[in-house]
Amino acid sequence: MKLTKLMNRIVVPGLFALYMLILFRIILFKYGSIDMDFLWYRLQKNLEKPEYSMHRMLYGNFIPLKTISDTVLSPSIHEVINFVGNILAFMPYGIFIVILSKSKMISLSGVFIRSLGMSLLLECLQVFFSIGNFDVDDLILNTSGGLLGYGIFCIFRLNGKNIGIKQL
Fold it and tell me: 0.85 exceeded by the pTM?
């Protein structure tokens, strides 16, 4: 099997799976261990009493750019790390979307929708498992990170064509 086929069939999907595991762990567990008993307990609690999840939504941020503007106007180290981390965490997602797409011609809007969808899933899981609060600004930052990763990949792909590098 040629090296390119090996990369496309095994290595890249394997790296994507590892990246997704790390992404879920960072966002949902904030670097802590993944405790399946804890998740099962939270799932049961929320299924028995859906109002518990609804109550958690009261603590969420549904005002676009509120957290972002608070961070810009009065930055603390924790807020800056959260701000930059949300963008950086999703940059590989934007790159993997292009690499793993069959046609390699995925559009900016396709990356936008997929990045937004993945971010929304993670935000909802945080609320549903009561391990975080919903923040619309996280959706904005994560989606921006996916788009930035896509843009970086496109720039490198164009530069690679200009200097004769074989495309992934």
Answer: yes
